[in-house]
Amino acid sequence: MALIDPITPDEYIPENMSTTVPVGNARPKHILDPGFDLTLRPMRYPQFFDMYRDAIKNTWTVDEIDFSDDLVDLDRKLMPAEKHLVSRLVAFFATGDSIVANNLVLNLYQHINAPEARMYLSRQLYEEALHVQFYLTLLDNYIPDMKEREAAFAAVENIPSIKAKAEFCFKWMDEVHHLDAITTQEERRKFLMNLICFATCIEGLFFFAAFAYVYFLRSKGLLNGLADGTNWVFRDESCHMNFALEVVNTVRAEEPELFDDRLEADIREMLRDAVDCEYQFAADVLGEGVPGMSLPDTREYLQYVADTRLHLLGYASEFGSKNPFSFMELQDVQGLSNFFERTVSSYQTGIEGDVSFDEDF
Ligand SMILES: [Fe+2]
Ligand SMILES: [Fe+2]
């Protein structure tokens, strides 16, 4: 017997099947209402189920990434200032995705009360583990010296510009971590701030700033293995942000009163803090002077990215900055891989055509 493919989920329910919710298992009215709704039919938020299905199509593995050219580049082609850039970058990567994974489990999963959304979060958790594995493999390959490698993994404690970014994340995690249930408006505002922080400031800004360094190096023909892996991570992170923003839109539709002027002001302040934090990191990364990538341009880029995040939330620009980095304007993931004649996974992909940085993210 052929399986039913629930592509249009609610067509799956046979007409004679009761959709009455059993007594004692009242379904939540809003997605942020406390509890662990287990009922997938009728499906309340099919868009999250669709995102889960798309994420499965975007499967890749770390074993596909070939770092051998990178090791030659690190040994023979990179200038000292570029080596410093790479060492700071990988030190950030050493812990960044673990922090995101922790927030996902400790905060987001608990309070987003829809089983189809929790399916997506489960898939995202796997992807964050994959990113952690990718960066673990990257650091092990890039840093042969055990003492240096240990120092890179301890960067979150020892390198001030990386510690500051981690503290920014922990601050917003702590805001909600003690909450077992978010019942009051104030608690839901805190949850929204955490969700928006991780989507727009951490995945959407800290990580996108890191991607810019990778694609800058790629534009000079350097570190193609890192760029190949980053293409996949870039796509994953774009989807994570997309999911979080869809949760925000859902909450906005269900509880519009939460989206008042104070929330907008708080989000703007949080994004300004994130830009400052990332700018301090940029000053460290570019501290030895990297030809072709200036600190003022990097600030402009960070402000531009922050503005695009505000637009995604339905708000006006904060900075009015333009994107100064032409190498970030269009991320044609598959096309660029072909251009460099790298091994491209034959996995089916969830996103077809160009992934345009300007249009979507
Ligand atoms: Fe990640
Ligand atoms: Fe992510």
UniProtKB/TrEMBL annotation:
It catalyses: a 2'-deoxyribonucleoside 5'-diphosphate + [thioredoxin]-disulfide + H2O = a ribonucleoside 5'-diphosphate + [thioredoxin]-dithiol. The keyword Cell cycle does not apply. Fe cation 1 binds at residues 97, 128, 131. One of its GO terms (biological process) is deoxyribonucleotide biosynthetic process. Pfam families: Ribonuc_red_sm. Its cofactor is Fe cation. Gene3D superfamilies: Ribonucleotide Reductase, subunit A. Its EC number is 1.17.4.1. Fe cation 2 binds at residues 128, 203, 237, 240. Binds 2 iron ions per subunit. Keywords: Deoxyribonucleotide synthesis, Iron, Membrane, Metal-binding, Oxidoreductase, Transmembrane, Transmembrane helix. The keyword Cytoplasm does not apply. The chain crosses the membrane at residues 191-216. The active site is at 135. PANTHER family: RIBONUCLEOSIDE-DIPHOSPHATE REDUCTASE SMALL CHAIN, RIBONUCLEOSIDE-DIPHOSPHATE REDUCTASE SUBUNIT M2. Provides the precursors necessary for DNA synthesis. Catalyzes the biosynthesis of deoxyribonucleotides from the corresponding ribonucleotides. Tetramer of two alpha and two beta subunits. This is Ribonucleoside-diphosphate reductase subunit beta. The gene is nrdB.
